[in-house]
Amino acid sequence: MSKEQVLTIEILHGDEEDKYLIRSAREIQLTLQAIAKGAKPVIMYYNHEKSLMKTLLLCATSNGIWLDFSQNEEENRAFLMANEVVMVTMHQGAKVQFTCEDPIVATYAGNSAYYFPLPAQILRLQRREYFRVPIIGDILLKCAIPLWKEKTTTMQEITIQDISVGGIQLIGKEIGMGLQEGEIYHNCSINLPEVGTLVVDIEVRNLFDLPAADGSVIKHAGCRFLSLDNQQTILLQRFIGQMQRKTSSERIQ
Question: Is the pTM of this model over 0.85?
């Protein structure tokens, strides 16, 4: 789990969102069919985005979609009470995001499954900044966040799991030591090896827990960068390119 990318919800507005919206029912069906065929994981956010569940998209038709049922009965009960579910997955290197309402229990291939009508629209985010690269190998990347506590400011260093031009995914027990969902933290510092130091404002978009392979719980925080200038963007692009080359090199070996 530690090297696995956690897909977070992207918030877009106005014209920016319109550039990436797909409204054709046929194109939506074909995109979701391809995701199902590729067995790409889907993260479903519910309970006002405070809870999440990892699943697989099983099938998509012109009528609706079927997703793999959880083996946890308590999780199923909570999920089936959700009014709105935001789903995030990947297709051909681009993030795909869409919203469904009112899950019901159905049957697919003889097994229980979640069912939703085919979404009326989906976002397919192809911008470079939405491509997150995992921090791999011997690189340990930290984000130093100034936290106000007991009338003083302390720097809290939290491990970065993946990074993009749009934001970072934080991981570890430190997340529970003061970060608040929706809060903006100013002058956060990230030392990018062989590139430079990035000082940036971040917004915590969501906080959540995921189980690790050993049964323990790992805390995650999805954060986005605010108001990057050209120099900051160039630093990030250089580091991301460096990580992509490292990933490609390790795959070849």
Answer: no
